[in-house]
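I have been asked to look over a protein record a colleague put together. Thanks in advance; the entry in question is below.
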Amino acid sequence: MASLPNYETLLYEIDDNVLTITLNRPDRLNAFNNRMRDEIIDALDHADADDDVRAIIFTGAGRAYCAGADLSGGGETFDRDVNADGGVVNDVHRDGGGLVSLRIYECLKPTIAAVNGAAVGVGVTSMLPMDIRIASENARFGFVFARRGIVPEACSSYFLPRVVGISRAAEWCYTGEVFDAAEALDGGLVRSVVPADKLMSTARELAIKIAKNTSAVSVTLTRHMLWRMLDVGHPMEAHKIDSRGVQYMGASPDAREGVESFLEKREPQYTLKPSSDMPDYFPWWADPQFS
């Protein structure tokens, strides 16, 4: 096994085919900074290249998940002419949270947020492209941008209405109020709310169900089929991709193993790997460029 990466703002731990990425600035409530942005992107690059990683859990160290952007820059924190935080295209600075959200969106592995405490600003927007969110009863959420004189970022104007609907998204963003886990559950932001001492075991149980029972290539294809079909205008587009996927996977050793293990009442042993066995048609989309 390759050596694990070592980070300043993250913990990167693999156990039983599940990678846990812990935001690790507890003295700053895991506030997001440029180093954290770069390290999350690098961690996902490592995870995608590692076939031993079958699912990814994000959580926070200490009492917060991520309290938002690091505000140590004071009133100029969000002034990109002062605090450049990414590439510049046509005199426009790229939003750092957006770079993270786009990388999560591109990820080959399913992602789960285990929200242990406050998730505010980029702390909540960057988890929107994750596949599943589970909250501790101690979790708090806030799309507080209008209260800071800025606008939603991290591609959240795309993801949030798709996750919770336009009316709930508008209310949360217009008011900027911080709300509790029960309201997040009612609004569809999180899948479930659990006691604090059950959060990681609940997230791991779900991740291990994925890691131990499914074809890795099937899950990677399915993840991108679900997310990318949100953008198409007719179900025929889904039918086209479904048909190619069924043809490719149906002739694969994973499909044979899936059927035979079911008939023989035993655990499956899938062999296809996302790093080397994706179909020729993947990816089937062309990513737009920042301009």
